[in-house]
Amino acid sequence: QPILVDNIAPLPPRILSPEDGAIITKYDNDLSEKGKFNFTVRGTSEPESIVTLEINGKKFTSRASFDNSFRITGIELPKVGKYTLNINAVDEALNQSTSVQQKLIYNNPINIVFISPRDGRGLGNNNLISWIMSDPDGGTISNKVLSYRKIGGEFLAIAKDISTNEFKWDNRNLPSGNNYELRMQASDGLATTTKTIPFLVDRNPPQISLFDIATQNIYKGGLFEATGKALDKDGGVEYVEYNFMPVYGAADKSTSSWYKAIINNKSGSKEVSFSIKTNLNLSDGKYQVNIRAVDMSGNVSETNYQTLTIDTTPPHVGSIEATIGGVKLLPRNDVWS
């Protein structure tokens, strides 16, 4: 009876996922249990071969299916760091393949959030760039590099090895435009995280093109109403704000806070219409209603204003007298004498 002799070692397994040098994160975790991390390796090997993977001193095995695929689950990593995977296969004749190595990093990216400019917003006369960042794994953040580019070009470094979370950038020679990108890179010792946002350069302030108030006199129980329009030719108007400033005869001195008007169409438009509708709780007197617009780069328009008189106090009789038959009578304790 014929005997099949097989002394040819199979080819080494091929890992398809994760790729060599890949960084896996918490989002690759097969477990929902907090504090534990398991991941899966997928690849190909000779059909029916036993695939053995060794990592961090532990071995995991799986049998390749008839279509050459294999999957090894439940691979536990105790902490973030760099790891080496050693993998080989043994066929049905017990021939063993050579071992191959693959590098892997388990690490969660640094959280980077730009505060100024905000994503898609701009830099105007305020050229302070600020951000917050944190490492979810508790590592030390270093090698911060801030850079920018005109879209399609190369990134140019603005500052390196920044020790604070802000940087004042002298960008006066940067032409106005909405085709720029800002990038922050930082390292936690295992990998570098990159955060890129679009931004625009806009040094032209917006303007209030129309400001009308419904009435310049408000009486008891009155409602203040106003409408208007604001323009910005570059980045668009982000919001319109107003306040009430005492002029004279008003006892209330705490009305200098700014309040946002209602944008009736869409914030960020080149032209916005706005409205104000509010019940006033102010002392009697004359006020200046100030209005101004702020664009997407933080530029502030000139302040427009209208005057407003508030009178919520009813009139009273100061004095009264009567003359009868040439005799002048004055009221005294509700009796005329």
Structure notes:
The chain is mostly beta strands and 337 residues long. 0% of the residues lie in helices and 53% in strands. The chain contains no helices and 29 strands. The strands form eight sheets. A five-stranded mixed beta sheet has the order 2-8-7-4-5, with no helix packed on it. The chain has a five-stranded mixed beta sheet with strand order 10-16-15-12-13, with no helix packed on it. It has a five-stranded mixed beta sheet with strand order 18-25-24-20-21, with no helix packed on it. Strand 28 and strand 29 form a beta hairpin. The chain is elongated. The model has no long low-confidence stretch (mean pLDDT 88).
In short:
This protein is mainly beta and 337 residues long. It has strands at residues 14-17, 22-24, 38-44, 50-55, 58-63, 69-76, 81-90, 100-106, 111-116, 122-123, 128-134, 142-150, 156-160, 166-168, 177-187, 192-201, 207-213, 217-219, 223-231, 237-248, 259-260, 262-263, 271-279, 285-295, 304-311, 322-324, 327-329, 331-332, 335-336. The chain is built from no helices and 29 strands.
